[in-house]
Amino acid sequence: MKRWVLSHRDSQETIDRIREKLSVSLDIPRSAQVSSAEPSDGVIFVSLDKRYTFIETGEETVPFLGSHETLGLFPSARVDEGAIKFVLNGADVMRPGIRSFDDWGEAGRLVVVREEKKGRGIAVGRSLLSSSEMTRVQKGPSLKNLHYVGDSFWNLYKLV
Fold it and tell me: Among 3, 57, 127, 136, which one has the highest count of C-beta atoms within 10 angstroms of its own C-beta?
């Protein structure tokens, strides 16, 4: 496994790239240190100032579910008890299983999937519909499951 700390300039470039790519507001000082770990080829865990953790693969950057502060940056959707076992097996989130959701605007945004009772993050998905379409639709897929508790990313993080 490779680990490294980025230089100040590279840290700023990484922070700016993540801000722009994910459309999030990161509360990080200019002196923030960015470190990375690559437990497997093509999978890099990026830690911003030891507060926010993201997973970067070749084509995707997603928040890591074990980083509660990172999950707070994204809108969420709460799913009922019946949907949890399917989501934790990698299934996309279907509209009937969603009990409530934040306004995330356009389709394509990252959304944290939370269980209904305690609000814990169980998955991260990409919205297939805009939040206004979600209010009108009653069935069909709504969120593409990208990362969930117990998946390969979750298990790789144990090596970091």
Answer: 127
